[in-house]
Specification:
alpha/beta, Rossmann fold, six-stranded parallel β-sheet, single chain, binds magnesium ion, 2 domains, elongated
Length: 231
């Protein structure tokens, strides 16, 4: 078979990987452990832990995700006087978060359907390593921000690294993701094509013009035949 002349590159979190239940489950485990350690944690809620992420994210958005999560956990632990035990609680959080990380049901079947015709890549800002999230061996290349000096999306250098890894002209590469800003606008800015995965059926943000929009990854194989032509 000839070498694929197109590459499909995926965002990880909320595109291929159902991150929310994993993070929620990990936060619940942290909260239960806090309550085992001290009665002072009785007044701390899951909503508090969730809001602590939002409170630190803005100031740290360019930092590695693990660092942002540690800062959020530190804030949560301080609510119950447990801030000296950040390392133990961070270890618990990440163990649960990865143990609970799963691909969406449409992910692996879509990758299997695409693989005969396209080079497949993973390129993420986060720490959802393929092999820790049920996607081992699925990709020709994997790029993780903060490894080998790779900056996070939406830096143009992130997508330039995608182009280099794919070894194809930008217009032969499709980036697929759930974030209008990171996965569509910023990818298109460097010449990639972009598919917006809109699982929730959200209204399209004004000015957003993805090359295509899908509500499920199951629609990708047909869509890409339309974008690149049928054999
Ligand atoms: Mg995402």
């Amino acid at each position: 078979m000839s070498e694929p002349r197109t590459a499909i590159v995926f965002d990880a979190d909320e595109t291929l990987i159902d991150l929310r239940p994993a993070v929620t489950g990990a936060l619940v485990a942290v909260l239960e452990e806090m309550r085992r350690w001290t009665p002072a944690a009785a007044g701390v809620s899951l909503a508090n832990l969730e809001s602590d992420w939002g409170a630190v994210f803005g100031a740290l958005s360019a930092a590695p995700v693990q660092e942002i999560r540690r800062a959020a956990l530190a804030r949560s632990l301080a609510r119950a006087g447990l801030d000296e035990h950040l390392d133990e609680f961070a270890a618990l959080f990440f163990a649960r978060r990865f143990a609970l990380s799963r691909p969406f049901p449409d992910a692996v079947p879509a990758l299997a359907a695409l693989r005969p015709r396209h080079l497949l890549g993973l390129a993420t800002n986060g720490n959802s390593r393929a092999e820790r999230c049920g996607l081992a061996g699925q990709f020709t290349f994997e790029l993780y921000a903060h490894e080998n000096g790779l900056p996070k999306k939406p830096a143009p250098e992130f997508y330039a690294a995608v182009v280099t890894a794919a070894g194809l002209p930008p217009e032969r590469i499709v980036y697929v993701g759930d974030s209008p800003e990171h996965d569509v606008v910023a990818a298109q800015r460097v010449g990639l094509r972009a598919v917006w995965l809109n699982r929730a059926g959200l209204p399209r943000p004004s000015g957003l013009i993805p090359d295509a929009e899908v509500s499920t990854l199951a629609d990708l194989p047909d869509l890409l035949l339309d974008l690149f032509g049928r054999p």
